[in-house]
Amino acid sequence: MDLNIRLSDGLLLRGYKWSPSGEAKASVIMVHGLGEHIMRYSDWATKFTSAGIMFQGVDLPGHGRSDGKRGHIKNYDQIDEMLDILLEESAKSYPERPVFIYGHSMGGGIVLAYLIKRNPHIKGAIVTSPWIRLAFPPSGAKVTLARIMKSILPSLTQHTGLVTEHLSHKQDEVDKYEKDPLVHGRISVSLFFSAVSSGEYIMKNAESINVPVLLLHGAEDKITSPAASMEIASRSNKITFRLWEGGYHELHNEPFRDEVFSVIIDWIKSNME
């Protein structure tokens, strides 16, 4: 069913909620990555509902069907408010139901920073391929332009330069991404610096994470840094880390996705009490 929320600045964020056929054992709130949208997770969501778990999320500002300039998020305060609202509504509707937050890529970085800043009342978080650091630094020209424009025109967007073949070993998944009309390849100056600053914040404060975290990263990820994930995992006794040999960026779209799901669902079940 459709799931819509409105932020205090007036932006309407549109999303979707997938419910199991019977009573849900737990709820998962998904935060997607840069350039994509929540409906890219529809197949993945059905795996959760088949296991009796509700799966929900909204498109970030400037993404998918949500309001805002494509690729532009003013700052991460908007996203923190989004998660505050989703968690509050979940607690109000299902007060006894265990809740987990799940973030992928930029969404993974968002979730990790949120855990540190807000210390939310949840059972845990699943984080895959988080943007803590990029696997390869962006070009000097792009960074220079971004620094110049940061205070002049923060909503200015540039192409991300994403190489779609680095998303998954499955060509059909790459093709679907490239043909998806709701996917975009833009990032604004303010969003870029928010993501970079957030990654630095996570690195400095990982030991402040107070809820269990399952952190998964592909060893061959050429988009976000597996080494950065390993580093923060070494700094927190709350993080269970697994490096997936041969894995690209989207572990949920790799040929071994069923194994990835089994690891996630077993971890959720072990942290529901």
Structural summary, described in words:
With 273 residues, the protein is of the alpha/beta class. The chain has a single domain (2-270), classed as Alpha/Beta hydrolase fold, catalytic domain (Rossmann fold), CATH 3.40.50. It contains 8 helices and 10 strands. The protein has helices at 42-50, 76-93, 106-118, 140-149, 171-179, 189-205, 226-234, 257-270, and strands spanning 2-6, 12-18, 26-31, 53-58, 99-104, 124-128, 157-159, 186-188, 213-218, 239-244. An 8-stranded mixed β-sheet has the order 1-2-4-3-5-6-9-10, sandwiched between helices. α7 (226-234) links the parallel β9 (213-218) and β10. It is globular, with a radius of gyration of 17 Å. The mean pLDDT is 94.
Major β-sheet, in short? 8 strands, mixed
Mean pLDDT: 94
The CATH topology name reads Rossmann fold
What portion of residues belong to β-strands?
15-25%
Number of domains: 1
Q: Which regions are unreliable across 5 or more consecutive residues at pLDDT < 50? A: none
Roughly how many Å apart are the termini?
27 Å
Q: What Rg do the Cα atoms give? A: 17 Å
CATH class: Alpha Beta
Provide a count of the helices: 8
Class of secondary structure makeup: alpha/beta
Q: What series of H and E elements makes up the topology?
A: EEEHEHEHEHEHEHEHEH
What would CATH call the architecture? 3-Layer(aba) Sandwich
* Spatial sequence of strands, sheet with the most strands: 1-2-4-3-5-6-9-10
**What is the share of helical residues?**
25-40%
The total count of strands amounts to 10
- What characteristic shape results from the CA principal axes? globular
* CATH superfamily caption: Alpha/Beta hydrolase fold, catalytic domain
